[in-house]
Amino acid sequence: MNQRQLFLQHVAQTSANPLALEIVKAEASRLWDVYGNTYIDLIAGISVCNIGHRHPRVVEAIKKQADQYLHLLVYGELVETPQVAYAQLLVQHLPAGLNSVYFTNSGAEAVEGAMKLSKRVTGRTEIIAFNRSYHGSTQGALSIIGDEYWRNAYRPLLPGIVHAEYNDMRSIDLITDKTACVIAETVQAERGIYKPSTGWMQALRQKCTATGTLLVLDEIQAGFGRTGSLWAFGQYGIVPDMLLLGKALGGGLPLGAFIADKTLMWHLTDNPVLGHITTFGGHPLSCAAGLAAMQVLLEEDMTAQVHRKEKLFLDNLRHPSIKAIRSAGLLIAIAFESFEINKKIIDRCIATGVLTDWFLFAPQCLRIAPPLNITDEEIKQACLIINNAVEAVTNNK
To answer: Is the CB of residue 236 less than 8 Å from the CB of residue 86?
Structure first.
């Protein structure tokens, strides 16, 4: 059997018709398959590869750390230089109240840790989340994601979860002194890129403060410059009690984190001791890669180019069949009439050299979330391919 057949036979599948592209090389914003075809990557591993694939600084950091040590002991017991250095860099670029980093294996695990810590700190059990928000597929994270289609098959899930409407002032009234935390995406990604109003975000912050509720912001997709600022919450003039990170955090390797004030995080050390533990969270190789990636992001000032590149996409994506375009920096959703049309356009894009996808809660929308260092020429070329795909599909060519 060839590699594709072996993949279908032995690797667990989560969709009936996986893309099954056999990629043999990735660099910057380009992918190459086993047949020599080249693709402009507009997914970036779902916002993982913010500084592009295989940045030389990241590759070098991985090699250097591999020559020193890999796994040593369960997280939190030994002083591991990559963890310490990365935690220090992160908190240096965060508000003072976000000064203690708990590294996990993934964004979903960061969500789980934040939920546990919120209950432990407040002594409360109610959690408010929002419809059409995505936070992961583990059972706790699944309990709070905002779509019954994904939740229903795995019930019973966690009790005490309230799902409210995002960016709706009526949702603010649901927060009471019984609420342990409110968990919200700073920008709803899988809904097809929805940004909240500044007034709503500030009201959310004020009500959480007034009721002693922890505000947890999920920037697993929106963080690390993708929306045009290092952290999306900075655009709303608020600071969360906890920040959730993942995806781009590891520079291409598995890594997540929940970040809070040390006074909150200290609750995990007692009653019970080892209140949250992980074997591989904060793996030294992942932290070394993530540290190098964040240094590159800062030193090359990639964030400063995001809004200009966003505009370049918006200026070059033009077709009467496009129903709407929503964007938050280099998180962009192109809405079409239906999923069926969108899927045909996606397939046509892939066949002609652009890798793109759809959104979980907005299947009629085409995803654009490329590496932040995608070139202007690649943006123009990608837009031309998308426009041609739309024309071909909508005119049945």
So the answer is: no
Q: Considering only CA atoms, which of 208, 205, 206 is closest in space to residue 176?
A: 208
- 242-248 mean pLDDT: 98
Instruction: Name residue 82's amino acid.
Output: P
Residue 23: CA count within 13 A, CB half-sphere: 16
Contact 50, 303 (CB under 8 A): no
Quick one: average pLDDT of 50-74? 96
Residue 338, strand partner residues: none
pLDDT tens figures, 255-283? 999 999 999 999 999 989 988 999 999 99
The secondary element (H helix, E strand) that includes residue 334 is strand 332-335
Residue 20 banded pLDDT, cuts 50, 70, 90: confident
Question: Position of tokens 């990557």?
Answer: 41
Residue listed under structure tokens 């002594």: 123
The Cα–Cα gap between 293 and 287 comes to 10
**C-beta of residue 224 within 8 angstroms of C-beta of residue 249:** yes
Burial classification of residue 2, based on how many CB atoms lie within 10 Å of its CB (0-12 exposed, 13-18 middle, 19 or more buried)? exposed
| Domains along the sequence of the chain with CATH | 3-54+301-394 (3.90.1150.10), 57-299 (3.40.640.10)
β-bridge pairing 332-335 and 362-368: antiparallel
Q: Which of 102, 114, 104 is nearest to 256 (CA)?
A: 104
For the chain, the C-alpha Rg in angstroms (whole number) is: 21
* Contact (Cβ atoms closer than 8 angstroms) between residue 244 and residue 223: no
* pLDDT (0 to 100) of residue 16: 84
* Band of residue 74 on the pLDDT scale cut at 50, 70, 90: confident
Report the C-alpha gap between 365 and 358 in whole angstroms.
Answer: 6
Q: How many CB atoms lie within 10 A of CB 149?
A: 9
Residue 318, token pair as written in the block: 């033009």
**Which amino acid, one-letter code, is at 145?**
I
Closest CA to 143 of 126, 119, 131, 159: 159
Determine whether 199 is exposed, middle or buried from the number of CB atoms within 10 Å of its CB (0-12, 13-18, 19+). Answer: exposed
Report the pLDDT value the prediction gives residue 397, as an integer from 0 to 100. Answer: 57
Q: In 38-98, which ranges are continuous DSSP H helix?
A: 44-47, 56-66, 81-92
Predicted model pTM: 0.96
